[in-house]
UniProtKB/TrEMBL annotation:
Residue span(s) of domain CRISPR associated protein Cas6 C-terminal: 153-268
Gene3D superfamilies registered for this protein in UniProt: 3.30.70.1890, 3.30.70.1900
Classification via PANTHER family: CRISPR-ASSOCIATED ENDORIBONUCLEASE CAS6 1
Top-level taxon: Bacteria
Species of origin: Arenibacter antarcticus
Cited CDD domains: Cas6_I-like (cd21140)
Keywords for the protein's UniProt record, in alphabetical order: Antiviral defense, RNA-binding
Family: Belongs to the CRISPR-associated protein Cas6/Cse3/CasE family.
InterPro entries: Cas_Cas6_C (IPR049435), CRISPR-assoc_prot_Cas6 (IPR010156), CRISPR-assoc_prot_Cas6_N_sf (IPR045747)
Protein known as: CRISPR-associated endoribonuclease Cas6
Amino acid sequence: MNTDENQMRFSIILIPTSNDAVIPINYQYPLSAAIYKVLAEADAEYATFLHEEGHKVDNGLKNFKLFTFSDLRAKFKLAGDRMKLSSPAEVLVSFHLPETAQNFVKGLFKDRQITLADKKSKATFLVEQITALPPFNLPEGAISAVCFGLSSMLICGKKDTKGNYEFLSPEHRDWDALMLHNWKEKCKAAKLQQTQKEQDSMSITPIFKTEKPKSRLIVVKANTKAQTRIKGYYGFEIGATGSEMALQLLHNAGCGVYNSLGCGFLEVVEKEKSTEHKTDAL
């Protein structure tokens, strides 16, 4: 089922167009906006769908973008709330796209320019190279257990009575249940055809490699009236069990909330033994 044609994850190498490239330390929103811009230039209809509607659950208000990206990987020096880059930058981008958009993905970002800017600074990059990452192959029609590593902070959010998020540590007693609910809602939004047994098999839990997970705070739409602070955690791994389709979705679309702002990007650490279970959907 997993072929190169279904490959939705890419490594993108960005070369600064100047020797003094400076980007905001809170680059996640500008980078997300840059991705939307590339989407719009390549496929305006699909980009509009992502931006305005997304993948909805049962035609309700909740929607998911079903794409995410990793932290930028580059050499830099901090100067206040700025990052002065001294090397090319790499970012991993991942999509869970419908079949009708697969042809669009093949030429994504090729020969493009990416601009990361806010009210204080602006830097332009050329896409020097885009490489499809190795496919995430799982036994078709099986329940599998996979260990994922985090390549960006993961956000677990629980809304209060005013609709604002309370950001929870993976050590919180509600973390597993909230992450599982979020994953199942994404499966509904993506219209995965899972059997009841496959749905019941789904589980997700944090795996701690150190004593304490680390927290990180980023600012979205910094220095504007719409400025928002969001808190995530990293320094731990994710253990997930489910069907091939559900695990593919988690891998492609990201874990937790704020995925389209580059949060919850997963990379496979280890695939555990699978339990063969043929499904009706496949």
